[in-house]
């Protein structure tokens, strides 16, 4: 298991709970799925689906409740990536985010099942589409 470094507060996975600082860096929405910049190892930006789509210049109009959308590079396949942004699944001890979230399916990912279930349980869309 590889972890991206960040300074975060510890939390316990629980349905409907998120770390205090688990919010979109661009628009401030919280309590929803967030994606992180896969190119940054130190304090990566975490963004909601809309802001990640804007930053990566990728449409997220088709993103579903599981955080999956049509791949732009592989016809007919779904992906949880938005450009270079990957799911931001925090490590519960507050040390950062799991690095390999490219396949958030039990048995196919180094991310623990409890963490996968937590991320999947979050809303994909913020309550309101942020103004940008």
Task: Provide an overview of this structure.
- By secondary structure, the protein is α+β, with helices and mostly antiparallel strands.
- The protein is globular and about 40 Å long.
- Strand 2 (35-37) and strand 3 (46-47) form a beta hairpin.
- It has two helices and seven strands.
- The termini are far apart.
- The strands form three sheets. A three-stranded antiparallel β-sheet has the order 3-2-6.
- The chain has helices spanning 49-56, 113-121, and strands at 3-5, 35-37, 46-47, 69-70, 78-79, 85-87, 96-98.
- It has one domain (1-132).
- The longest helix has 9 residues, at 113-121.
- 33% of the residues are buried.
Helix-strand pattern: EEEHEEEEH
**How many independent structural domains?**
1
End-to-end Cα distance: 36 Å
Percent helix among the residues?
10-25%
Number of strands: 7
Low-confidence regions: none
Beta fraction: 5-15%
Quote the average pLDDT: 81
Shape: globular
C-alpha Rg (nearest Å): 13 Å
Largest sheet: 3 strands, antiparallel
Main structural class: alpha+beta
Strand order within the widest beta sheet: 3-2-6
Give the count of helical stretches: 2
Summarize the structure.
This protein has 132 residues and is of the alpha+beta class. A hairpin with a 7-residue loop joins strand 4 and strand 5.
Task: Describe how the helices and strands are arranged.
Layout: E1 3-5, E2 35-37, E3 46-47, H1 49-56, E4 69-70, E5 78-79, E6 85-87, E7 96-98, H2 113-121
Antiparallel strand pairs: 1-7, 2-3, 2-6, 4-5
Features:
alpha+beta; globular; three-stranded antiparallel sheet
